[in-house]
Amino acid sequence: MTPKEIRKKFLEFYKARGHAIIPSALLVPENDPTTLFTGSGMQPMVPYLLGEHHPEGTRITDSQKSFRTGDIEEIGDNRHTTFFEMLGNWSLGDYFKKEQLPWVFEFLTSEIGLDPKHLYVTAFIGDEENNLPRDTESAEIWERLFEGKGIDAKIALIGSEADGYERGMKDDERIFYYDSKKNWWSRAGVPENMPAGEPGGPDSEMFYDFGTEHNLKFGKHCHPNCDCGRFLEIGNSVFMEYMKKPDGTFAPLPRQNVDFGGGLERITMAAANTPDIIAVCHRPIIDVLEKMSGKKYDDTSADISAFRIIADHIKAASFLIGDGVVPSNTERGYFVRRLLRRAIRYADQLGIQDAGLSALVEPALESYRDAYPETYAVREIIKQEIDKEEKKFRKTLKEGLKEFSKMIVSGGISGKNAFDLYQSYGFPWEMTKELAESAGVKLIGMDIGFQAEVEKNIREHQDLSRTASAGAFKGGLADHSEKTTRLHTAHHLLLKALQIVLGPQVKQRGSNITNERLRMDFSYDAKMTDEQKKEAEKIVNEKIAENLPVLRSEMPREKAETLGAEHEFGQKYPDRVSVYSIGPKSATSANPEFEKAFCLEFCGGPHVDRTGVIGKFKIIKEESVSAGMRRIRATVE
């Protein structure tokens, strides 16, 4: 089965079981300064898992595109990718374990056709110190499910990952209990790290056994959580059923949630019984690379890692550019630049020089044209961005490699050397590190120079991306303090003011709101004059002074669009949406009078009840982001 076929089967399977299908969120999180990229299927759902009402109801399913920066250096093996899709289904206070686990098992075995003899599962062993019980219910459900397939599934008490390597597994064992480091989920990690008020719960993971020989370098014995490659995690059902109390103990949640995430590409690998994610899910790109290089992709090739790196990086960069992230030296753009420059270097290793990696965009996106038509529609723009970056980097790549060769004659690469390569030749720090390691050269004095000026910043961003939704709050804001909420409502007023001053063609292209300031990216092709900024500021303050009501409504997406509700460019929305209206003065929750509202916008909140509490609005700065894109920073006092 292809990923496209499996994605369709998954969504239809859960739709038939009462789930609303919602579209994937962008790879750039909306209104979330805590993370650079959407790194999991759960991330956009955090507000609803924490109690906010979802417009589509209590049963939700989707396929969420995701990107993880922490996996970049892992690319080149047979199972890691930076871009992937996470199949998800959620119960928001609806069904629980006895429905969820049989559904997942049915989907994998009956719909996808996986041999149940290749499936192994895990459950939470319990935590005596925190008085959290063993998840015997999940284990018992799994026993019955395997028994229904004629499999006698024995239960094994493992504990820690280290215990697994020491103990190993017996032939008839299929259900494995692990500790909270492996089978407990909360945004803060293990139970002892959870703050008061934080929800969490046990989870149950599913693994596929490829039957490959255990590699002893990973541990004495193999077990489902072993990293040797025999077992591959393909899905995880999180059962959010506890809340940590102020006294440090745990109490049952009044509303239990289910959060399932299944790796689309990993399930495709299992369906093909092939432990190579690139061969299974990136084959169209590999086919073109073989023609471009004149080399073959196979397990015996010394160049297999180069094939894998190029295929992964071009697909990931294509989706990031498609969602509005262009190569640059800062924040998100740095990672696109890093992906492309790493791909270019490995293309040279394959003998592909000046051939144009943009030729890989079409095969990378062709199979996604139905699932993500908005990305496929801008493929020419994606090709142009990749071409520009390749031409820019190839001008200096050869000279930079020559300079690197001179540097290693001295026996090592210093922080200053790395900084010079970055500054003069555009070599990302990670590329210099990889080149040095490949050449067997020492890294000297990396606590100075480049590391101090660049690496610290990059690592901080990587940590943010790895933690995915950690720290995300209701409404996707940095927090839901009073000032952040005031700024969020001011943000809506500002967008309308910009449309009044600059023209109705102005559209929001991204935002970031903390308790100190708001930041809005918007489409406009010229620098704002001082007079225009003053006029926009004046309009916002006038609407604040009018003390207009701020009201939330739920309605079909088509109705909201007909009413002219603003929404972020490129963002896909579900069939039923939450809409906030500001004004008129006489509006009530029973009669919002949308046609007379000052502004109307798709939004999940939170907002102030009336504009009068916002305070004095002030624009701090207006600047260019890229061609046709401007950015405003503002605050309230």
How would you characterize this protein structure?
This protein is α+β, with helices and mostly antiparallel strands. The chain folds into three domains: 3-277, BirA Bifunctional Protein, domain 2 (2-Layer Sandwich); 282-445; 477-636, Threonyl-tRNA Synthetase, Chain A, domain 2 (2-Layer Sandwich). It has 20 helices and 19 strands. The strands form four sheets. Strands 1, 2, 3, 4, 5, 6, 7, 8, 9 and 10 form a ten-stranded mixed sheet that branches. A four-stranded antiparallel sheet has the order 13-14-19-18, covered by helices on one side. Strands 15-16-17 form a three-stranded antiparallel sheet. Strand 5, helix 5 and strand 6 (173-178) form a beta-alpha-beta unit. The longest helix is centred in the middle third of the chain and has 30 residues, at 379-408. The chain starts with a helix and ends with a strand. 46% of the residues are buried. Mean pLDDT is 87; it is low at 446-451, 456-466 and 468-476.
